[in-house]
Design brief:
Length: about 160
């Protein structure tokens, strides 16, 4: 029975995503059922279930963190766009990651794309290369905060 839990969770996630994308239209489910099934199969093939349990409190904390950082990142980029005379100093930073390999590390790299002024460039082994808009921004501090939230979400120790 536990082998079906990842299938059920992913199917539910892709079903919700289809429902949102289709605007809740009932006539879209002919294609939607096939799309959900293929997306579930592809996700299980590309990212096999690792057996991590998700912490409900960790999920709430990560969601709030993600929403706050997304808003903050959007505002900061808007500020940069409105003030084109700002002296930015773009740079690349290599950061050693503490999360174990797998989905949590991939989610971290994707989450960092929404943090203010950062873009994940390459994830190789336990190293993440980040592009930052300004070298004076505390990029590593931001990575550590996101890592901590994801570790709590997936009940991992760093």
């Amino acid at each position: 029975m536990t082998a079906f839990v990842p299938v059920l969770w992913r199917s539910a996630l892709f079903t919700l995503l289809w429902w949102v994308l289709a605007g809740g239209r009932a006539d879209s489910w002919g294609v939607g059922v096939v799309a959900v099934a293929l997306a579930t199969l592809a996700s299980l093939r590309l990212l096999p279930a690792a057996g991590h349990r998700i912490s409900p409190i960790g999920l709430l904390r990560f969601t709030l963190f993600f929403l706050y950082q997304s808003l903050r990142g959007g505002l900061q980029v808007a500020w940069f766009a409105l003030r084109p005379n700002l002296a930015l100093h773009p740079a690349f930073h290599d950061v050693a990651l503490r999360l174990p390999e797998g989905g949590a590390r991939v989610l971290l790299a994707n989450t960092l794309n929404l943090l203010p002024g950062t873009l994940s460039v390459e994830l190789e082994g336990d190293r993440l290369c980040l592009h930052v808009l300004d070298a004076s921004l505390p990029a590593e501090k931001e990575v550590r905060a996101a890592e901590a939230r994801l570790a709590h979400l997936f009940r991992l120790s760093l």
